[in-house]
Amino acid sequence: MKEFFKDRRVVLLTCLFTFFTAWWLYLAFTQTNPLSLPVVVFTSSYGVITLLGGFWGYKIATRWGGRNSHIGRVVTYLTLGLLGEEVGQIFFTVTYFSNHFTVPYPSLADVGFVSSAAFYILALINLKRGLSIKFSKYSLRSRLALMIVIPFGALMLYSLVDSGYLFAGPDFTASVFFDTLYLVSYISYLMMAIVIAIFAIKSLGGVMRGRILLVLFSILLQFAADYNYMYESSRGVVLLPSVNDLLYVAAFFGVGLAILSCDPGTVDGL
Question: What is the value of pTM for the model shown?
Fold first, then answer.
């Protein structure tokens, strides 16, 4: 574990996370104008974490044989998910500042966010296959997974709908289409992460346990950011900088660490 956190890439990623977190705290207490230069620069720059993660992810996936191995595909889809988030963030920020602090729904930003969720689902599917997890209605773990996932998923779905998440955008058909994609994809990858954790954690040990835990934790961070984005959007309270920006900084940092933890060149892993 010590060797992993001494890796120069991990140190750089940690420094960037600390820097952007401190910057967000400064803006939260000192800036009231969403068009002030510090706010504009902040919202436009913390995506550098995703670009670094994407660069490292491509190299790491290649070392695993790319799509020729389960781990290679997991890293590839995590990388694409990270980059999809950045595409969505870029379109959202540009539209926000160019459209007088409003973002129409749906917009090009939503295409990036939805694609990111799809890539995370693909990453978890390949992680499940790589771990050879089999679901049986007769096993205790399968029943435990169902007891947790179904009520929790229903609760999350209800909270989103009850909060007014079903938007009334100018294009009703497109709005309903993206509403459905958001609800299904975000809740799906959260539920998949929980199921994989239930089935895999006790049967793993050593380096693999740490890597899988980090991947699953990064997915939970990403869900927290995505869920908060949906909540803020449904309430029409998206202001910059917002708590959502801080959550995305943490999520990008977590996914970046998860990608680096899969590097076969890491001596001791986690």
Answer: 0.81
Nearest-CA neighbor of 93 among 229, 223, 231?
229
Asked if residue 78 belongs to a domain, the reply is: yes
Encode the chain (270 residues) as per-residue pLDDT tens digits.
567 777 899 999 999 999 999 999 998 888 777 667 787 788 889 999 999 999 999 999 999 888 888 889 999 999 999 999 889 888 887 887 787 777 777 788 888 888 998 999 999 888 888 777 665 544 555 555 555 555 555 555 555 555 555 554 554 567 777 777 777 788 788 888 877 777 766 666 556 677 788 888 888 888 888 877 776 665 655 555 678 889 999 999 999 999 998 888 764 444
CA distance 107 to 268: 44
Tell me which amino acid residue 117 is.
A
90: which 2 tokens?
């870029």
Block residue for tokens 């980090």: 214
Are 220 and 187 contacting, i.e. CB atoms less than 8 angstroms apart?
no
Q: Position 54: which residue type?
A: G
Torsion angle, alpha carbons of 17, 18, 23, 24, to 10: 60
If one counts the domains in the chain, the total is 1
Domain that holds residue 98: 2-261
Domain assignment of residue 155, yes or no: yes
Q: Which amino acid is at 252?
A: F
DSSP string, 183-245: HHHHHHHHHHHHHHHHHHGGG--HHHHHHHHHHHHHHHHHHHHHHHHHHHHHHT---SS-HHH
